[in-house]
Design brief:
The protein is of the alpha/beta class and 461 residues long. It has three domains: 17-87, Arc Repressor Mutant, subunit A (Orthogonal Bundle); 107-117 and 358-460, Aspartate Aminotransferase, domain 1 (Alpha-Beta Complex); 132-353, Aspartate Aminotransferase, domain 2, CATH 3.40.640.10. It is 39% helix and 13% strand. It has 14 helices and 16 strands. It has helices at residues 24-37, 50-57, 61-73, 119-130, 148-160, 176-187, 202-210, 227-236, 258-271, 326-337, 342-354, 356-378, 403-413, 444-460; strands at 77-80, 84-87, 107-108, 170-173, 193-197, 214-218, 220-221, 224-225, 241-244, 274-278, 300-305, 317-321, 392-396, 415-416, 418-419, 433-437. A seven-stranded mixed sheet has the order 4-12-11-10-9-5-6, sandwiched between helices. β9, α9 and β10 (274-278) form a beta-alpha-beta unit. The N and C termini lie far apart (50 Å). Keywords: Aminotransferase, DNA-binding, Pyridoxal phosphate, Transcription, Transcription regulation, Transferase.
């Protein structure tokens, strides 16, 4: 029998003992996961102390400890030394474009829209393709990895960003998120560990949770992930992979310089990690920069999505990979994708081969540079290694907020922004920020208005 009576005790989580079945630790973990994902436990809820919960359920403390550990590995809960265990604040907080008009009266500065005004170039390419005699050939199942001349265009576009690989090591996928799914499902296994920046792309976080892959946050500085910290973690906690976006990290906007890229590459080679390099912002990197992948020729998968650079609506990404991954990735594409739309790939190929792609990225760089100048009228860019023409900014908050509280109040002021907890891999006492999209407001005037509202909001808080 329990040591204490809990009949009227205000315990924050009371699992139904009648629902417990052997093994008890898995049953408790399942009940906790259900209550979190279905909203019965609010974000940041402090869970009962493990001893108290063990007493309530009349079971061993070690059973509760094992159950909590399962949920912690899944990212459902987090522990703070000396304070207790809490429900993670960003469960199911992947960032996506909603189909509703919920925020239609607000200035959008959360979602990173990629300056879709350049879609006039894309529309012209589509009109040109519609007149081609071979149009029907783009509408079948052939060439699952991409038509040969589409892959040649992919090779050409990668060379534009100093990544040169054989066409046999290139495939075309249905966008960046599809590429992540493909790579995680074919090259990794449930329980594997992948190193990431402390703050990283939230959709990658959520995808890893779905596949039961554990993300290990590695400390960084103004140049990005610290190689010595990565090396230290690898020596004590064997990792299988590493995910990086060195041209312009989302959300911190840090651009990793060439020295740091080479240092990270040395650690990758030393410990035999699989590099997942997300180069969606390659077109914003300084000229002459080379991907980390070029320094780990036996260990890389390089993803060059065109969502931000050319067109968000044409779901295409180019991936390149080391020889050892050819067979597994090919098998994965055959079974996961069947193939990517050749019509979509044709549109991007047309943009690349006609030179329109170069015009698009030049135009986007020009607009983004102008919007960054507007941003600097209101806020300082704290680190010199932040990309000067980034589509977004990482603004420190000088007050502690809960994620939903901060975003909701900002919304009531007329702006939609994201709190840093969405991007935080491990829920701890890390400094708080907000990510500001500079490219989502419809024009410079709307951006200036949004930044003015944001500054006033932060000063009043």
């Amino acid at each position: 029998m329990p040591v204490n009576s809990f009949e009227n005790y205000p315990i924050s989580w009371k699992p139904d003992q009648k629902q417990l079945v052997p093994p008890l630790y898995r049953s408790i973990a399942s009940l906790l996961e259900y209550d979190i994902l279905n909203g019965f436990l609010a974000p940041n809820t402090k869970l009962p102390p493990q001893r108290e919960l063990a007493d309530f359920l009349d079971i061993n403390l070690s059973t509760i400890t094992r159950a909590f550990k399962i949920c912690e590995v899944k990212g459902l809960i987090y522990a703070v030394t000396g304070r207790g265990t809490f429900v993670t604040p960003n469960i199911k907080n992947a960032i996506f474009m909603a189909g509703s008009d919920e925020n239609k009266n607000c200035i959008e500065m959360g979602i990173i829209k990629p300056l879709d005004s350049t879609n006039s170039f894309v529309a012209q390419a589509i009109k040109s393709i519609a007149t081609k005699e071979y149009l029907e050939n783009l509408l079948d199942y052939r060439h699952p990895l991409g038509m040969p001349y589409h892959r040649m265009a992919a090779k050409k576009w990668m060379q534009r960003f100093n990544m040169d690989v054989a066409i046999e090591n290139i495939a075309i996928t249905s966008g960046g998120q599809n590429s992540f799914s493909l790579i995680l499902m074919t090259l990794f296994h449930p329980g594997d560990k992948i190193a990431v920046d402390i703050y990283t792309y939230p959709n990658f976080i959520e995808l890893a949770k779905l596949l039961n892959i554990q993300l290990i946050p590695i400390e960084g500085d103004e140049l990005g992930m610290k190689p010595e910290r990565l090396d230290a973690v690898c020596r004590t906690n064997p990792l299988q992979g590493i995910y990086l976006s060195p041209s312009c990290n989302n959300p911190t906007a840090v651009t990793m310089n060439m020295d740091r890229r080479k240092e990270i590459a040395e650690v990758i080679n030393k410990h035999g990690l699989i590099l997942i390099e997300d180069d969606v912002y390659s077109f914003l990197a300084p000229n002459g920069y080379s991907p980390i992948s070029s320094f780990v020729p036996e260990r890389f998968v390089y993803i060059l999505s065109i969502a931000k650079s050319l067109s968000s609506g044409i779901r295409v990404a180019f991936i390149a990979y080391a020889n050892q991954f050819v067979e597994k990735i090919t098998y994965g594409i055959f079974n996961l994708n069947v193939k990517t739309s050749a019509l979509n790939a044709e549109i991007i190929t047309e943009l690349i081969n006609t030179g329109a792609a170069e015009q698009i990225i030049n135009k986007k760089r020009e607009i983004s540079q102008d919007r960054n100048r507007i941003y600097q009228k209101y806020f300082q860019i704290d680190h010199k290694r932040e990309n000067p023409i980034s589509f977004f900014r990482w603004l420190p908050l000088h007050k502690e907020w809960q994620l939903n509280q901060f975003e909701h109040i900002a919304l009531t002021r007329g702006i939609h922004v994201y709190h840093s907890h969405r991007f935080l891999v491990k829920k701890d006492e890390s400094p708080q920020f907000t990510r500001i999209s500079l490219t989502s407001p419809k024009d410079s005037d709307e951006l200036e208005n949004g930044l003015c509202i944001l500054k006033k909001f932060l000063l009043e808080s």
